Amino acid sequence: MGGVLQHRFRLAARQGYRNTDLLPRRDRRASTLARAMDRFPLTRAAALERLERFVPKAAGAYAARRNLVDPQGDHRNVSRLSATLRRRLIGEDEVVRTVLAAHRFDKCEKFVAEVFWRTYWKGWLEQRPQLWTSYLAECESLPVTPQVHAAMDGRTGIDAFDHWARELTETGYLHNWARMQVASIWIFTLGLPWQLGAQWFLDRLIDADPASNTLSWRWVAGLHTAGKTYLADADRIAAMTGGRFRPAGLAESAAVPEASPMPGRTPLPATQEIDPSQPTMVLITPEDCSLETVLPQLDVRAVAVADGMARNGWDRTALGDAAARASGHWQCPAAAGDIVALALRHDCKQIVTGLAPAGPVASELAALRKRLGERGVRLVEHQRDWDRQCWPHCGKGFFNLKSQIPGLLRSLDLLVKTAPNRTGESLGKDCYTM
Ligand SMILES: Cc1cc2nc3c(=O)[nH]c(=O)nc-3n(C[C@H](O)[C@H](O)[C@H](O)COP(=O)(O)OP(=O)(O)OC[C@H]3O[C@@H](n4cnc5c(N)ncnc54)[C@H](O)[C@@H]3O)c2cc1C
Fold first, then answer.
1. From ligand 1's centre to the CA of 111, what distance in Å?
2. Ligand 1 centre from 30 Cα, in Å?
3. Alpha helices in 263-345, H assignment, sequence order
């Protein structure tokens, strides 16, 4: 492994995932961004349109076909909403509400539960943020060997793995079931460190997310649910890919990698109060790109765009879309640049932004809070009701949260009570019996 590449990889790890430019140039295709944006919406309007088109499939079709992986990369059995949900161009509540307006809960329960998986990982990591920092440190200390490089390039000789490695590079997306196989083969067949696999995904995924990614890799490795590993299996891969792949030589057993002891739980972040009487600047980061749909009535004088927190063109597209909407909503200018200077220029004593869970944006906000404090400006991170109500149930296993879903849907007011659904079927009382 060349020293330069090793250095780039370490730098990328140190920064969380700030800069995909750190990846080898020949791996990047100029058209990747444009093609991926077409298939994975990155504006709110495109996301709402995708959701609308996906809704009819969110019940029986999703339950039956969601794990089938099309080798041609046609992933229409799943919503492909993750890049927008991850940046909150639309909220989890909006997705769930729209789906429940069209289907009884018992019919679309599988899809709703998947949306809650994202919530689960975020809420879980938020209670053990040390895992994120120790993962970054481990990435830095691990050597990026030629074997790691061959795997990232799709040159292992394992057909399914190589195909998906190339798909990831070319599109920025992998189907969930393919992600599970790739992670499992990386860890158990190729014997590579899970941390470098997670770093690879984080650098390339259009929906790259510290919680879902790091914890999913740990889950596959058997580090999340003690001793429960996920072992890829050639027959299952053949079944899910319509017989296209049946890789030989996959590991037949899975030894859980060594890991430091699980850190104890830390309390969830306390609610930060917004002062509605203060002249306010709204700050848009890649963690929440539809603040105008959730913030209370405020005296907003300006919108700032945290373009320095964008790690790639996908983030920048989402931020640009969010800025245009926010500026229109609050009828005020939107600008990028030095955030402290922008706040002072607009005489704002308060900056309101979306709560950033463990990850690079949270670290940047912590540094910004300090700089703002020195100039007498308060930074308030607004926590969405969804997170506030769901995260307390995310400290243990997913099934603990899952059992709370019906109650959470009720308390988040997501069950549509009277409207007939799209097939004309009235949503009777029974649809609340979950
Ligand atoms: C090793 C590995 C790494 C992953 N890394 C990421 C990541 O960096 N970012 C990311 O957003 N997801 C990650 N996932 C989760 C999942 O693969 C993607 O969210 C999903 O494939 C997105 O496609 P979709 O929107 O079509 O999903 P759908 O099947 O349509 O599901 C709807 C929504 O539910 C949520 N969801 C579905 N499955 C999961 C899941 N297993 N975990 C968490 N949320 C889920 C997503 O928000 C998704 O958009 C990872 C999974 C694995 C196994």
1. 11
2. 25
3. 313-330, 339-345
Say if ligand 1 is within 6 A of residue 208 CB. yes
Q: CA 290 to CA 323: how far, in whole Å?
A: 9
Using DSSP, state whether 45 is helix, strand or coil: helix
Question: Which pTM was predicted?
Answer: 0.91
Q: What are 245-289's pLDDT values in tens digits?
A: 999 999 999 999 999 889 999 999 999 999 999 999 999 999 999
For residues 259-295, b (16+ Cβ closer than 10 Å) or e, as one string?
A: eeeeeeeeebbeeeebeeebbbbbbbbbbbbbbbbbb
Q: Is 181 in the pocket of ligand 1 (CB under 6 A)?
A: no
Pick the CATH number of 279-382 from 3.40.50.300, 3.40.630.180, 1.10.10.10, 3.40.50.620: 3.40.50.620
> Which residue's CA is the closest to the ligand 1 atom numbered 16?
176
Q: To the nearest 10°, the Cα dihedral for 183, 184, 187, 190? A: -100
Pocket probe for ligand 1: among 65, 82, 125, the residue whose CB has the most ligand atoms within 8 Å is 82
Domain boundaries, the chain: 3-240, 279-382
What is the token pair recorded at 300?
A: 């907003």
pLDDT digits (tens, 9 = 90+) for 78-134: 999 999 999 999 999 999 999 999 999 999 999 999 999 999 999 999 999 999 999
Residue 72 has pLDDT above 70, yes or no: yes
Pairing state between β 279-284 and 378-382: unpaired
Cβ of residue 204 lying under 6 Å from some atom of ligand 1 = no
Pick the residue whose CA is nearest to atom 17 on ligand 1.
176
